[in-house]
Automatic annotation (TrEMBL):
Top EC class for this record: ligase
Protein's gene: gshA
Pathway in which the depicted protein is active: Sulfur metabolism; glutathione biosynthesis; glutathione from L-cysteine and L-glutamate: step 1/2
Catalytic activity annotation: L-cysteine + L-glutamate + ATP = gamma-L-glutamyl-L-cysteine + ADP + phosphate + H(+)
Pfam families associated with the record: Glu_cys_ligase
The protein's name: Glutamate--cysteine ligase
Similarity annotation: Belongs to the glutamate--cysteine ligase type 1 family. Type 1 subfamily.
Domain of life: Bacteria
Organism: Candidatus Pseudomonas adelgestsugas
Length: 527
């Protein structure tokens, strides 16, 4: 264990400081497709009883009108966060009628591209902006790619903890600068070690054949409509997922916040010839927000992002540059089809220990192409993480993945123990022990269990996923919300519709001007 990590552990273990770890915040965003009783993509609009997808803070849509997204508030106790997510599921199922929430990250059998509905957000300028942005995604990457679903885990450490560490280390920088530097360091370590998360929690080793749309591939054919890689952990996070020729040369620097933000700002401002050729309009209608490498910074796909809550009409990049990093969003977690919500408290407890290790451990700057090597490790585990003898790159040498995984878990163990001590529980250590079992026995990983269940039941990917979807639906529908909680969700839905209506009625300014002002504001951002 590094000297720096030892010092920080000793400091945070003190009676007067350990309670700071109880103030970490946890939020979850869970995406899931709406499907029919037969497991086909629902073609119905976003259900009106769920409220406005534009203004409901808890229930919205992601890319497609059929791709729901549930957003919890950030809470100190992840058990409360998961309880909120559970209530959202139960409310949604009370309004879904005969439809189901797809249990898997990889999509159901999809219709043709033109029949995948893009999410619609109304006639306000911001609603149109979100819609045109999605039209641009369809143009650039295809609609099929946008139907992949996942779980995002939002995590922050309390500002007092960062201040405590800064003062203990005798640094003279202001608290906000130190906090951003520390979060960027966390992100570097996350990129170094997130292959472990893909091994432990990857749950998408197979997919419906319709996903590839006759693209060439090297997947194994399990049946006429199911493809897989035998040792894969997460095809969702592999190079079969989100791909972009335009983004190949875009490699944001994770060595400091300004370099990271500037690389994205420049990408939003830099034309890309194939997009320029297409233009922003077709037959007088907007088809993409601009012809640059990125329409907005959110188009850049990464397994982790630095984040800050934005003010109304504030650009995320500007919020980061002017007010620094507030939390991180880990985006590499597959939906576990065996879990009703796709995630449970055991996963959350380990995530917290892993993220705390990334935050407190040494995090050298990326040099000598290390950033690309971390990406290579990540993709190797995504596509063949359960292959016996798999080698990864560590400090310029090839190492056995299993050996490295055990070593990492041993280093994370003191962080799990510290979190347990802060809360008077044993759940973080128990969660870590459960991961060690998976490292020693790959058949215990979710990805292996998915393939085993499909083989045992003689089911295709689509049949297995629909079966799991219906099992989970039964659980949620058999446990309706208490009347008062149901009423609160319904009131939130009604209020969100009223809020969208008010926004549209009071809209001032032309949409074309709105987009121009957005582009100008990107160019105007200064460090």
């Amino acid at each position: 264990m590094s000297e720096l990590l030892n010092r920080r552990l000793a400091l945070l273990s003190k009676r007067e400081h350990i309670s700071l770890l109880k103030q970490c915040l946890h939020g979850i965003e869970r995406e899931c497709l709406r499907v029919t009783n037969g497991g086909r993509l629902a073609q119905t609009p976003h259900p009106e009883p769920l409220g406005s997808a534009l203004t409901n803070a808890l229930i919205t849509t992601d890319y497609s009108e059929s791709l729901l997204e549930f957003i919890t508030p950030a809470l100190p106790n992840p058990a409360d966060t998961l309880s909120t997510l559970n209530k959202i599921h139960r409310f949604v199922y009370s309004k879904l009628g005969s439809e189901y929430l797809w249990s898997h990250s990889m999509p159901c059998q999809l219709p043709t591209e033109e029949n995948i509905p893009i999410a619609y957000y109304g006639t306000s300028n911001i609603g149109q902006f979100k819609y045109v942005y999605r039209k641009g995604l369809a143009l650039r990457y295809g609609k099929t790619m946008q139907c992949i679903a996942g779980i995002h885990y939002n995590f922050s450490l309390p500002e007092q903890l960062w201040s405590l560490l800064k003062n203990a280390e005798g640094l003279v920088s202001n608290d906000r600068d130190y906090q951003s530097t520390a979060y960027i360091a966390l992100i570097r370590n996350f990129r170094r070690y997130s292959w472990l998360l893909i091994y432990l929690f990857g749950a998408s080793p197979a997919m419906d054949a319709s996903f590839l749309r006759d693209r060439s591939h090297q997947l194994k054919v399990l049946s006429s409509n199911t493809l897989c890689l035998p040792y894969a952990t997460s095809l969702r996070m592999s190079d079969l997922g989100y791909q972009s020729n335009a983004q190949i040369g875009l490699t944001p620097c994770y060595n400091d916040l300004n370099s990271y933000a500037n690389s994205l700002r420049e990408a939003v401002a830099t034309p890309y010839a194939p997009y320029v050729k297409v233009g922003t309009h077709k037959n007088g209608e907007w088809i993409q927000l601009n012809t640059n490498i990125l329409q907005t910074e959110n188009e850049y796909y990464s397994n982790i992002r630095p984040k800050r809550i934005t003010y109304t009409d504030e650009l995320p990049i500007k919020a980061l540059i002017t007010r620094d990093i507030q939390y991180i969003e880990a985006r590499c977690l597959d939906i576990n089809p065996f879990l009703p919500m796709g995630i449970d408290l055991l996963v959350s407890r380990f995530f917290d220990a892993f993220l705390l290790y990334c935050a407190l451990n040494d995090s050298p700057l990326f040099v000598n192409n290390e950033c690309s090597k971390t990406t290579s490790n990540f993709l190797s585990v995504a596509k063949e993480g359960r292959r016996p003898g798999l080698q990864l790159q560590c400090d310029g040498r090839a190492v056995d993945m299993k050996w490295w995984a055990i070593e990492l878990l041993e280093k994370i163990a003191p962080l799990a123990y510290l979190l347990d001590e802060s809360q008077g529980i044993h759940e973080h250590s128990q969660a870590l022990d459960a991961q060690l079992v998976k490292v020693k026995d790959p058949s215990m990983t979710p990805s292996a269990q998915v393939l085993a269940a499909m083989a045992e039941r003689k089911e295709s990917f689509a049949q297995f996923s629909l079966h799991q979807s219906k099992v989970h639906a039964t659980n949620f529908r058999q446990e309706p919300l208490p009347a008062d909680q149901q009423a609160r969700f319904e009131e939130l839905a009604r209020a969100s519709v009223a809020q969208q209506t008010k926004l549209e009625q009071n809209e001032a300014g032309d949409f074309d001007v709105f987009v121009e002002l957005y582009q100008a504001s990107i160019l105007a951002i200064k460090n």
